[in-house]
Amino acid sequence: MGSVGLLFVGAVLFINGAMLLGWVDATSAAPMNFFVGALQIITPTYLIFTANGDADTILSAAGLYLFAFTYLYVGLNLTFGLDGTGLGYFCLFVFVSALVYSGLNFTRLDDPGFGVIWLHWAFLWLLFFLVLGLKRESLSRYTGAVCAIQGWVTGWVPALLLLTGTYAALAVPLAVALAVFGVVVFGGLYVVMVRRAGHPDAPVAPDRHVAA
């Protein structure tokens, strides 16, 4: 059941990334945040109630609420035009929690694939904190690009592997591939979208409002 939720986490990350890039209007992104936020409330609640006290199942399911509350918070902010500072500082909480979940996947749960995936999510939620909590608007488009890409590589891909029963055999290669991908792609995007954009000789992009 969690793999179904993960599939739609990929969808909402892609849409929110497209919103930060200015490709999708903010108000049109709100419904998907509500849909996926609600799904990520139902899924872990079901998993916890049917876990029969299994600590590892409850531990894994509890992490899904971090996503649920983020997406519901985003949906409310977009719908009512709220200030994003509170959401930003919640994202700081998620960032720290994601680091802990990453460590637990590498050690207690023996799942290197999701160990690296949680590191990806920790990085993304740190960016959300910087953009929303600390108002680092220069990182908005970069954060959007990272978010949209992570929708595919940390949501869609592992969800399909889980749904087709091939994840267990590919967990280690997936971990290595995602680790290399993250460093190379997100590092390269930072140079192109942030460092080079801030250089005085860099071409100036057209000014347009991007809703966060």
UniProtKB/TrEMBL annotation:
Keyword tags: Cell membrane, Membrane, Transmembrane, Transmembrane helix, Transport
Domain of life of the organism encoding this protein: Bacteria
Entry's transmembrane regions: 6-24, 31-51, 57-74, 86-104, 116-134, 146-164, 170-192
Cellular compartments annotated: Cell membrane
Topology with respect to the bilayer: Multi-pass membrane protein
Subcellular location, principal: membrane
Signal peptide extent: none
InterPro entries, alphabetized: AmiSUreI_transpt, AmiSUreI_transpt_sf
Pfam families registered for this protein in UniProt: AmiS_UreI
UniProt record similarity statement: Belongs to the AmiS/UreI family.
Protein name: AmiS/UreI family transporter
Organism: Pseudonocardia humida
